[in-house]
C-alpha cells in the first residue's frame, strides 16, 4: 500500500500532538515540584520568625523578621494586613508560604536550587 500525503500528515500531526501533550505534562509536573519545594523552604523560614512557636506570625514577629530598612514599618504593616484577610492579627505560616510562593516569580527556581544544596 502507498501512504497518501494526507494520511502521512495526519500521522505526523498525531505524533507531534502527543509529544506536545507529554511536554506539557512534564513541565506542569516539574513546576508543581518546584512550587512544593519553594513552599517547604518558605515554611521553614517563617518558622524561624515564629518566636513563640505557635505556627502563626503576629505583626510584631513579622515586623521583627522582615524589617531590613527597605520597607518601612507602615509598608510592612500594609503587606501584613493585605495577606491577613480575616484581620485577626496573626498569619498562619501555611498561609504565608502559599502567599509568597505565588509571588516568587523568577526567584522560585533560585529557592528550589538552594534547597537541593
Automatic annotation (TrEMBL):
InterPro entries in UniProt: EF-hand-dom_pair (IPR011992), EF_Hand_1_Ca_BS (IPR018247), EF_hand_dom (IPR002048), NECAB1/2/3 (IPR039862)
A GO BP annotation: regulation of amyloid precursor protein biosynthetic process
Pfam families: EF-hand_1 (PF00036)
Gene Ontology molecular function terms on file: calcium ion binding
SMART domains according to UniProt: EFh (SM00054)
Keyword entries, A-Z: Calcium, Metal-binding
Sequence ranges assigned to domain EF-hand in this UniProt record: 37-72
GO CC terms, sorted: endoplasmic reticulum; Golgi cis cisterna
Lineage top rank: taxon: Eukaryota
Protein name, per record: EF-hand domain-containing protein
Organism per entry: Monopterus albus
Amino acid at each position: 500500500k502507498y501512504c497518501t500525503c494526507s494520511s502521512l500528515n495526519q500521522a505526523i500531526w498525531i505524533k507531534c500532538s502527543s509529544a506536545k501533550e507529554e511536554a506539557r505534562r512534564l513541565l506542569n509536573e516539574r513546576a508543581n515540584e518546584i512550587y512544593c519545594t519553594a513552599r517547604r523552604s518558605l515554611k521553614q523560614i517563617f518558622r524561624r520568625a515564629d518566636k513563640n512557636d505557635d505556627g502563626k506570625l503576629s505583626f510584631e514577629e513579622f515586623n521583627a523578621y522582615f524589617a531590613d530598612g527597605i520597607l518601612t514599618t507602615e509598608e510592612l504593616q500594609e503587606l501584613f494586613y493585605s495577606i491577613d484577610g480575616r484581620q485577626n492579627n496573626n498569619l498562619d505560616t501555611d498561609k504565608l508560604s502559599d502567599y509568597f510562593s505565588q509571588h516568587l516569580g523568577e526567584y522560585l527556581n533560585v529557592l528550589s536550587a538552594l534547597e537541593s544544596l
